[in-house]
Specification:
- By secondary structure, the chain is of the alpha/beta class.
- The protein contains 10 helices and 11 strands.
- The protein has a 6-stranded parallel beta sheet with strand order 3-2-1-7-8-9, sandwiched between helices. Strands 5-4-6 form a 3-stranded antiparallel beta sheet, covered by helices on one side. It has a two-stranded antiparallel sheet with strand order 10-11.
- It is globular.
- It starts with 12 loop residues before the first helix and ends with a strand.
């Protein structure tokens, strides 16, 4: 049975959403809400000027969201009408849902794992990984759980997975066991129906709500090899769960260590806490904010010293970082490194 942590004091994922939704009527990014005067300012758009800034920078913080993985062809887990087999996807992302029907939740996440494994890192992932290798004082915070940044070779010590990973499995009874970076597909034989591939013109039976779900017994799901009693569950942060407090403290410590030269905001509007606060914190440390996003609204509130690059991160990031990482080919390989 699920037991809520008794000693956790950090706010939950749902709490951060509630704070955001109750505090602001606008859906614009939290960090862009500035004065009327600042709204009239236009951010810089020069690639050359950004390259000069990046070349001379020391401490760089990056915050990444789903837009980073868009070019990898990773589909949203939401189907027609925003549902997954007539379920709200968020309703399956809770401890209560897992306790009530672990087979259903595991089928949902086994399918997401399968789709993420089929996807490949794009040039944006590779560019960030190369920048992390070149810049000693670089830290990337990602809200993505798809595992594409690690697969692109991003150094682990310079990457923080704010919302966990689809490829980590941990004990639901909280004995402390974590099976990290498990790339098995399916994660166990009983979940094979979620790992099937069909032609583009055919629908995976699992996704058709008119077709009954395949029977999956709880005893056939992954079990914890440590305590022998609990089920393993996906290692992502669910609603009503706290984010990893030691990780958050570690990120705050990094931010407070000194001046931050650049804050990169990539493929996200940064509207979910605590991610929404990181740009504010970086600004207070002197950071120039550089936003990469297809949505022009993401430029709202940026000052004249900031940068905005509208478009796909997979195309823009290699260009922005070229002065540091060198020229990248269409497959994400560096073909002309910087000497």
């Amino acid at each position: 049975m699920f037991r809520a942590p008794q000693s956790v004091k950090s706010p939950t994922f749902s709490h951060y959403l509630a704070v955001y939704n109750s505090s602001f009527f606008s859906r614009r990014p939290f960090w862009t809400r500035r004065t009327a005067h600042s709204e009239k300012m236009s951010p810089q758009t020069s690639v050359e000027e950004f390259r000069e800034l990046l070349n001379s920078s020391n401490r760089v913080l990056a915050l990444c969201g789903a837009g980073l993985s868009a070019a990898s062809g990773l589909p949203t887990f939401r189907g027609a009408g925003g549902l997954w087999r007539n379920h709200e996807p968020t309703s399956l992302a809770t401890p209560d849902a897992f306790e009530e029907d672990p087979s259903l939740v595991w089928l949902f996440y086994a399918w997401r794992r399968h789709m993420a494994l089929k996807a490949k890192p794009n040039r944006g992932h590779y560019a960030l990984a190369e920048l992390a290798k070149k810049k000693e004082n670089f830290l990337c915070l990602t809200q993505n759980v798809d595992g594409l940044s690690p697969r692109a070779g991003h150094p682990d010590e310079k990457l923080r997975l704010l919302h966990g990973s689809l490829f980590d499995n941990k004990c639901f009874d909280e004995c402390g066991y974590i099976d990290r970076n498990n790339l098995s597909d399916p994660v166990c034989p009983a979940l094979a129906p979620a790992a099937g591939d069909y032609p583009p013109d055919q629908t995976l039976p699992l996704l058709d709500p008119e077709i009954p779900l395949p029977p999956v017994k709880a005893e056939d799901l992954p079990h914890c090899p440590n305590c022998k009693t609990g089920l393993l569950r996906p290692g992502v942060v669910w609603f009503d769960e706290p984010l990893d407090q030691p990780m958050l403290e570690e990120v705050d410590h990094w931010i407070k260590q000194g001046h931050i030269d650049i804050m990169l905001v990539i493929g996200t509007a940064a509207v979910v806490y605590p991610a929404a606060g990181y740009t504010q914190k970086a600004r207070r440390r002197g950071a120039v904010v550089a936003v990469v996003n297809p949505d022009p609204e993401s430029a709202s509130g940026l000052s004249e010293k900031d940068f905005f690059f509208q478009g796909d991160a997979s195309e823009i990031l290699p260009r922005l970082f070229e002065g540091v990482i060198g020229e990248m080919d269409e497959h994400g390989k560096i073909i002309h490194p910087v000497e």
